[in-house]
Design goal:
About 75% of the residues lie in helices and about 0% in strands. It is an all-alpha fold and about 260 residues long. Among the domains are: about 55 residues, Arc Repressor Mutant, subunit A (Orthogonal Bundle), CATH 1.10.10; about 45 residues, Orthogonal Bundle (Arc Repressor Mutant, subunit A); about 70 residues. It is elongated, with a radius of gyration of 47 Å. This is Regulatory protein RecX. Modulates RecA activity. Belongs to the RecX family.
Length: about 260
């Protein structure tokens, strides 16, 4: 019996120990009613996330009016009186118009040289009154910031050197930019006949290779036409082309069409 009692006591003790261990394992591993515990805590996690999202939306909504206020757009439109839309804008004073004209001239002259006529057109497009525009242009001429003679001289030199334009084409371009005949003639006088002929020959030489293999008459028409479009007279064009072809060993006879 003693052995039986001992066995029973040992079993009871084992059962108690196993029960406690199982309880501890269950609480640690989440077994048994661990599923119900997780299902019970899931709504709590969702509620916390919802609260956090709601707080974020509330913060963003609080910051949005401040951004609009800084941008100065929606708040002003809401506060603007509709009757103000029909009110005429205040006209700038003469001092403001004079300063505006000065700023316009300074800006455009700072970018590139321009004629008085070109700058007058720009002031007119900006609705600067004629009397204020003329006064501003006169003042810039007095300060030597605006000079049509200098413009014409630089224009003739650069366009003749870079593009090979002859006097006729250069004179047309100057008049189109508002340069008067006297100023244009003075600038064009810096080009002499020898200089024009040398530039024409340089243009022909640059095109000779592209026309090789063509009929001599076709080559002549193309080269002479190219010089004519750049403002050269027929006499200069045909003479230069004939000399260039002769240097290549081609002798050709043609009549001067006289497109001067």
């Amino acid at each position: 019996m003693a052995d039986g009692a001992d066995t029973s006591d040992t079993a009871d003790t084992t059962d108690i120990g196993d029960g406690r261990a199982a309880k501890r394992n269950t609480s640690r591993s989440g077994g048994g009613f661990g599923e119900s515990r997780r299902s019970g805590f899931a709504p709590a996690k969702k509620t916390a996330a919802s609260k956090k999202a709601a707080a974020s939306k509330k913060t963003a909504a609080a910051k949005k009016p401040a951004a609009n206020k800084n941008s100065g757009w929606s708040s002003r439109r809401k506060d603007r009186d509709p009757a103000d839309a029909d009110k005429p804008r205040p006209q700038p004073s003469r001092e403001q118009l004079e300063q505006r004209a000065k700023n316009i001239l300074t800006y455009h002259l700072g970018r590139q040289m321009q004629t008085r006529s070109q700058l007058a057109d720009r002031l007119r497009k900006k609705e600067i009154p004629d009397d204020i525009a003329e006064a501003a242009l006169d003042r810039f001429e007095e300060l030597h910031l605006l000079d049509d003679a200098d413009y014409a001289e630089v224009f003739v030199r650069s366009r003749h050197t870079d593009r090979g334009l002859a006097k006729r084409a250069l004179g047309y371009e100057l008049r189109k930019r508002g340069i008067d005949d006297e100023t244009a003639a003075e600038a064009l006088s810096t080009l002499d006949e020898d200089q024009e002929a040398a530039t024409a020959r340089r243009l022909v030489d640059s095109r000779l290779r592209a026309t090789r293999g063509l009929d001599p008459q076709v080559r002549t028409r193309r080269l002479v036409g190219m010089l004519a479009r750049k403002g050269y007279s027929s006499s200069v064009a045909f003479r230069v082309v004939k000399e260039a072809l002769a240097d290549e060993g081609q002798e050709i006879e043609f009549d001067d069409p006289g497109f001067d």
